[in-house]
Amino acid sequence: CKIEDLNDVVEETITSLHYVLGEKRVKKRLGEIPAIEMDREQIGKVVLNLLINAGEALSNGGSIYVTTGKEDGYIFLSVKDSGGGMSREFMEKDLFRPFRTTKSSGLGIGLFQSKKIVEEHRGRLEVESKEGEGSTFKVKLPASRVTALI
């Protein structure tokens, strides 16, 4: 792992998804955050997965809100969509389990893999969702990582 800037990874990923998500649908507010030790490619996969999921949740328009910042010794990335949200039951029983999905297509392994990658970086992947109101996924990574697990 090298010292990397999460904002750069977020910007690159949004740019790579320009035609998939549509330029105006992604609203971003990237805060001033320190560079941290991370595997750029692996964290890029997490960002990609969260953005694609958010885009797929917006079947009838809406926006994706991408925010980065610092809090409680962590830097964070928040991806919020204004889609259909998830039931409490699904979040409790199935959300981070492989091969479970609320979508009509897809394998249901993206969030499972994303959670593992974040945890390998000693971070956390949190979610808030309400049916009919959308979902927010928040990746929290330690602001001061000295040693890498990967």
Can you summarize this structure?
The protein is α+β, with helices and mostly antiparallel strands and 150 residues long. Helix content is 33%, strand content 29%.
Q: Can you give keywords for this protein?
A:
150 residues; alpha+beta; 7 strands; 33% helix; 29% strand; globular; disordered C terminus
Explain this structure to me?
- With 150 residues, the chain is an alpha+beta fold.
- Helices cover 33% and strands 29% of the residues.
- The protein contains 5 helices and 7 strands.
- The strands form 2 sheets. Strands 2-4-5-7-6 form a 5-stranded mixed sheet.
- Strand 4 and strand 5 (74-81) form a beta hairpin.
- Helix 1 (6-16) packs across helix 3 and helix 3 (40-57) runs antiparallel to helix 5.
- The longest helix has 18 residues, at 40-57.
- The radius of gyration is 15 Å and the shape is globular.
- Residues 146-150 have low confidence and may be disordered.
The fraction of residues assigned to DSSP E strands is 25-35%
| Arithmetic mean of pLDDT | 85
Give the biggest sheet: 5 strands, mixed
End-to-end distance: 7 Å
Strand order across the largest sheet: 2-4-5-7-6
Shape: globular
Topology as H/E string?
EHHEEHEEHHEE
